């Protein structure tokens, strides 16, 4: 309740073009000195995830994917998220996260595609479950 009231006051002032003493404290883009180390560590981790663009796939062929399981395959310069359903039918989507382009990974425990960069999750067929991605994996 308190932060809702504060948000209302800050947003009203921002719209009206007035200064608000709390605006800097609640600015979502602020980086405090105390948080800068964690921010840098996370930025390095995110950048490291892009190495997946140049690595091979989890498996070299869809034949290696068990029923009700998924894996990332390399197809030329692209990576494809392939799920084999319990009947044996393959479902393919681009493995590129629609948020900022990291390569998703198969989560065998949850049977989801998870993005290691910012935490987006997609169901086994590639439809978005959690953002920040706001749409599913692209059809191939
Ligand atoms: S790139 Fe996938 S969540 Fe940001």
**Overall 3D form:** elongated
SSE arrangement, N to C:
HHEEEEEEE
Bound small molecules, which ones? FE2/S2 (inorganic) cluster
Largest sheet: 4 strands, antiparallel
Short descriptors:
140 residues, alpha+beta, four-stranded antiparallel beta sheet, three-stranded antiparallel beta sheet, 2 helices
Structure, explained:
The protein is an alpha+beta fold. Helices cover 23% and strands 21% of the residues. It has two helices and seven strands. The strands form two sheets. A four-stranded antiparallel β-sheet has the order 4-5-6-7, with no helix packed on it. The N and C termini lie far apart (46 Å). The model has no long low-confidence stretch (mean pLDDT 90). The structure holds FE2/S2 (inorganic) cluster. FE2/S2 (inorganic) cluster is lined by residues 97, 99-102, 115, 117-120, 132-133.
Topology summary:
Layout: H1 2-16, H2 33-49, E1 69-75, E2 78-84, E3 90-94, E4 105-107, E5 112-114, E6 121-122, E7 128-130
The structure holds FE2/S2 (inorganic) cluster (FES).
FE2/S2 (inorganic) cluster is lined by residues 97, 99-102, 115, 117-120, 132-133.
Quick recap of the structure?
The protein contains 2 helices and 7 strands. The protein is α+β, with helices and mostly antiparallel strands and 140 residues long. The protein has a 4-stranded antiparallel beta sheet, with no helix packed on it. A 3-stranded antiparallel beta sheet has the order 1-2-3, with no helix packed on it.
């Amino acid at each position: 309740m308190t932060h809702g009231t504060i948000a209302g006051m800050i947003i009203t002032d921002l719209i009206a073009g007035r200064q608000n003493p709390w605006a800097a404290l609640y600015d979502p883009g602020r980086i405090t000195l105390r948080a800068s180390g964690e921010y840098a560590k996370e930025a390095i981790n995110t950048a490291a995830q892009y190495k997946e663009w140049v690595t091979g796939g989890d498996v070299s062929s869809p034949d290696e994917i068990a029923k009700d399981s998924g894996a990332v395959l390399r197809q030329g310069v692209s990576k494809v998220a392939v799920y084999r359903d319990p009947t044996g039918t393959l479902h393919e989507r681009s493995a590129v996260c629609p948020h900022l382009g990291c390569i998703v990974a198969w989560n065998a425990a949850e049977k989801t595609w998870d993005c290691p960069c910012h935490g987006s999750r997609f169901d086994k067929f590639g439809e978005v479950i959690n953002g920040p991605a706001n749409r599913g994996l692209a059809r191939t």
